[in-house]
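Lecture notes, part 5. Sequence design as translation. It can be helpful to think of inverse folding as translation between two languages: the language of shapes and the language of residues. The source text, in C-alpha cells, appears below.
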C-alpha cells in the first residue's frame, strides 16, 4: 500500500522507520519530512497545517493510508480532511483531538466520568482567578488551556508567583490563544510515567510504558522543553499500576469519549503521576509522544501498519499487541540555548555510523539538507536511541552512540534514565 506521513520530527522518523520495516508498504511519502526521513520516504515540502495541499498531494500519489503525527494538525482537523475524502487515516478527528487541545475539556471529561486526576478550577477572567488563588493551597499549578508546545504549565510555590503566572498566561498572553482559559490545578507528587495506547474508538491497547525528561538541564533543572530524552519501560509501572490504569483510566476514558460522541481513534497518550493516593492523570495527548515514540516504537514486535489500520478500521480487538522483552533509551541532541534562542545551520557529522544498525538508531528531529550536507535546523536536532537487554545497558549504549555524532553547539542532558538507578536502590 501507499502510505503518507504528515509531520517532520523525530516521532515521524520513528514511524517512518517502522513503516519501512512493515512488509505492507510499497511506497512511503512524508510531508514535510526531514533529512533523516528522506532516506526512507519521498519528502514533499508541504506544511502540516496546509490541508488543501496535503489532500491534493495524497490524491496525486493515490495514497491508501495517511498517518498524522503531530498535535497541531490533529487539533486543526487534518485527519478529518483525509477521512472526509474517503482516505483511510490514522489519527483522531478534531472533535476527539480536543482531549489534548483543551485542558479544560479533558479536566471536565475526567470529572464527569470519575477518572482519577488532580482537583481543579477553570477561569476565563483574571480577577476571579486571582481571587481564588489567594486562598488556594501552595504549591499550585497553572495551565494554559490550549496547545503550548508542552510549555504552558507553571508550578507556583508562592502566591506572588501564582499571581504573576496568571498575568503571564492571561494578560501578557505568553502562550497566545492557549491562554484564553486558565486551569488551576492541585499540586501532586510522585513518579511520572507515560503510557501510550492504541485505540479504535472502542478497544484500547496500552503499549509498553515510557518516561520523558522535560526539563532542559541535568537534575531536572532549567526550562521545560518538548522532551530531552526518554527511557522504556519504566521500572515504576508495575503490574498493579497497570491493572489499576486499565480499569480506572484507559478503558473509562475511551468509553467516555465515545459516550460524548467523540470517538477516539489513534494514539491516546496518558501522562500519569503515581501519587501516594494511586495513579492520576496529568494530561492526555492525542498522538505519539516525541521522544516517547523513539523508545516505544523500536520495541514493538507487531507490524505497525497492521496495528494502525486496525485502529482506523475498528478491529483492534483482533490485534495481539506485543513488545520485546528489552529496554530502550533515547538521548536528545539539541542546539545549545534551546528552548530559548539558538543558532542553526551547523553541519552534522557521524550519521553514517548508524546506517544498517538494528541496535542503535538516530531519529532526526530538526535537520535539513544544505547541498549534500545534513545541517542542524531546530532546537531539538537528533534523538539517539539504543536498545539493550536492561535499562542500564540501553542507557550505556545510548550515551556511547551519542559520541558518534558531532556538530557545533551540540547539547544534551547527561542523566537520562537516572531514575533507573533509584528504582534499584
Ligand atoms: P502537562 O503538560 O500537563 O503534562 O504538565 C507538564 C509537567 O508539569 C508535567 O509533566 C509535570 O511534571 C508537571 N505537572 C503538571 N501538572 C501537575 C500537577 N497537578 N502537580 C504536579 N506537577 C504537575
Ligand atoms: N514528550 C512529550 C510530548 O510529546 O508531549
Amino acid at each position: 500500500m501507499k502510505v503518507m506521513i504528515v509531520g517532520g520530527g523525530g516521532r515521524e522518523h520513528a514511524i517512518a522507520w517502522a513503516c519501512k520495516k512493515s512488509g505492507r508498504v510499497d511506497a512511503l511519502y512524508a510531508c514535510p519530512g526531514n533529512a533523516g526521513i528522506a532516506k526512507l520516504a519521498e519528502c514533499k515540502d508541504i506544511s502540516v497545517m496546509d490541508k488543501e495541499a496535503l489532500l491534493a498531494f495524497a490524491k496525486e500519489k493515490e495514497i491508501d493510508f495517511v498517518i498524522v503525527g503531530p498535535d497541531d494538525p490533529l487539533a486543526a482537523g487534518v485527519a478529518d480532511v483525509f477521512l472526509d475524502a474517503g482516505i483511510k487515516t490514522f489519527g483522531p478527528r478534531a472533535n476527539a483531538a480536543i482531549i489534548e487541545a483543551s485542558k479544560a475539556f479533558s479536566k471536565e471529561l475526567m470529572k464527569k466520568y470519575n477518572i482519577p486526576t488532580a482537583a481543579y478550577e477553570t477561569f476565563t477572567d483574571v480577577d476571579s482567578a486571582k481571587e481564588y488563588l489567594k486562598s488556594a493551597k501552595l504549591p499550585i499549578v497553572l495551565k494554559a488551556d490550549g496547545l503550548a508546545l508542552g510549555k504552558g504549565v507553571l508550578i507556583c510555590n508562592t502566591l506572588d508567583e501564582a499571581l504573576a503566572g496568571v498575568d503571564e498566561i492571561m494578560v501578557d498572553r505568553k502562550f497566545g490563544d492557549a491562554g484564553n482559559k486558565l486551569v488551576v490545578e492541585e499540586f501532586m507528587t510522585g513518579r511520572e510515567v507515560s503510557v501510550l495506547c492504541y485505540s479504535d474508538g472502542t478497544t484500547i491497547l496500552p503499549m509498553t510504558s515510557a518516561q520523558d525528561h522535560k526539563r532542559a538541564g541535568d537534575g531536572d533543572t532549567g526550562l521545560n522543553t518538548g522532551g530531552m530524552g526518554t527511557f522504556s519501560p519504566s521500572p515504576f509501572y508495575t503490574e498493579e499500576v497497570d491493572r489499576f490504569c486499565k480499569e480506572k483510566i484507559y478503558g473509562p476514558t475511551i468509553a467516555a469519549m465515545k459516550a460524548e460522541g467523540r470517538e477516539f481513534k489513534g494514539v491516546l497518550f496518558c501522562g500519569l503521576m503515581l501519587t501516594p493516593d494511586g495513579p492520576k492523570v496529568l494530561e492526555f495527548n492525542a498522538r505519539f509522544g516525541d521522544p516517547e515514540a523513539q523508545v516505544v516504537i523500536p520495541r514493538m514486535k507487531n507490524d505497525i501498519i497492521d496495528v494502525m489500520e486496525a485502529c482506523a478500521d475498528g478491529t483492534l480487538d483482533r490485534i495481539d499487541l506485543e513488545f520485546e522483552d528489552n529496554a530502550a533509551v533515547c538521548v536528545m541532541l539539541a542546539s545549545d540555548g534551546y528552548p530559548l534562542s539558538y543558532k542553526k545551520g551547523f553541519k552534522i557529522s557521524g550519521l553514517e555510523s548508524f546506517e544498517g544498525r538494528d541496535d542503535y538508531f538516530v531519529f532526526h528531529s530538526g535537520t535539513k539538507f544544505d547541498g549534500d550536507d545534513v545541517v542542524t535546523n531546530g532546537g531539538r536536532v537528533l534523538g539517539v536511541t539504543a536498545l539493550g537487554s536492561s535499562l542500564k545497558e540501553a542507557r550505556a549504549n545510548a550515551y556511547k552512540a551519542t559520541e558518534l555524532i558531532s556538530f557545533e553547539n551540540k547539547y544534551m542532558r547527561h542523566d537520562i534514565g537516572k531514575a533507573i538507578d533509584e528504582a534499584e536502590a
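The translated text above is only one of many valid answers, since several sequences can fold into similar shapes. The CA atoms of residues 91 and 266 lie 4 Å apart.
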